[in-house]
């Protein structure tokens, strides 16, 4: 027999703590209903004693209702035993869904089992022919429609004093069959109802948490939301390695304990005297945990590990008030399910933090690169200016043909450096995140025509025809200077890489993409084209084609990189289609309303 001390702790006859397997099933209202069913079954079947065992979610069978025998009720009600049905199947005689186990079939092992987990009434044998023996058992396995066990129903001490027969069992089934189904239904609702209720509360709370939070903010909001939504006093999501005030002296021990629990998918119940789980012997509750219970005025706590794969991520801690019932199996299973949901959110938050940190690092690298490029460009401007000044002075004097060729080569080199400096500064400018989104209204039709007129002499000198097909009233929101540079780069490149007698065509017209109004610009040439292996590299800064024919044309390798940055800065898209030796087409789409602003 077990008892409880003044604190409510379960103790055995020697005053030792007992693992609380008893009274873990259901609530008092459910037990009352099953007790009423047991009494009704007793009346209908004409048996004095009726007992019902319910299957718990932890795999144990618990006596939840006993009618007709006060001694049996005092001993067995609320007690649980491991699920073991071998003796019922092996020793019992099947009768209409019931198993009759005659007392004479019991062996010593089975008798020992029944002495520990059952009850033998203190009554003499009936003495009748075919009479009932006090060791007899009549048991029905209560199974649902899928054949899954949900409980056991016992009948004992028939008023007739006789053992059952197929005929009397048939009468029992007729009279009480509907009650068997009622017991199955109640047990199934308890198996899943409490768990579903608790999980539903937790998930409703989880859904209320703002998305995109970091680990610490997520932990704080999850704890608050679940504590408000669930029938518990406190909820805390504790991340592995985090400090818990008041737990400093036992932090290492508790962390290792929960890490081991994750490895075996277990849990820990903390009560004031003892701390236990289903897989280890109980230990005396550490003083720090007892102090935490006192600080929060709690009677007990449930600790469920949070993890993913082999990695322990933290602990889901739930606290229950002093006068609240003990943690039952359904609640523990529900908390385990909730911990899985929390693990997913913690992983997402951790990935979010890593992504933000990586983006910050990339922004720092990009800023450093931009600053370095601007510094280099500024440093180059002074020596280039000095070169031009001296070249202009030298040009005033007469020179031999050889010297004149050298001066012309110096002039070309200086101008190439000057162009590269200008391109570097432009590239750094269009890559600057602090410039803000361009917001001017730009008449793109006029800009395209003006750029075409400006480059027309260049095309004429190269022997290349330049055609413009531009629709009227093409207005976009953006940066006029950047858009002009983008168009000039496309057209000047098309002219530069076209042979004499070639043709360049610049077209622009309205075009909606995915429901968004915009402008489509195409620049097509009949030039030397781009090798297929190099098409996806043309927007890379400083990229120059390996083609000897392309390398004969001067360039810095920055024009298309600048073009791509301008287009992306306007939330547009740019693409290229080229056939080596036949020409290239660049396609740009810009939204009418320009780039989106971010807060």
TrEMBL record:
EC number: 2.7.13.3
Keywords, in A-Z order: ATP-binding, Kinase, Nucleotide-binding, Phosphoprotein, Transferase, Two-component regulatory system
Protein's recorded name: Sensor-like histidine kinase SenX3
Recorded catalytic activity of this chain's protein: ATP + protein L-histidine = ADP + protein N-phospho-L-histidine
Record-annotated Histidine kinase domain positions: 375-594
Domain of life the protein comes from: Bacteria
Keyword Chloroplast: no
Source species: Nocardioides pinisoli
One GO molecular-function entry: kinase activity
Group of enzyme by EC: transferase
Localisation: Cell membrane
InterPro entries: BphY/WalK/GraS-like, GAF-like_dom_sf, HATPase_C_sf, HATPase_dom, His_kinase_dom, HisK_dim/P_dom, HisK_dim/P_sf, Sig_transdc_His_kin-like_C
Predominant subcellular localization, coarse grouping: membrane
Listed Pfam families: HATPase_c, HisKA
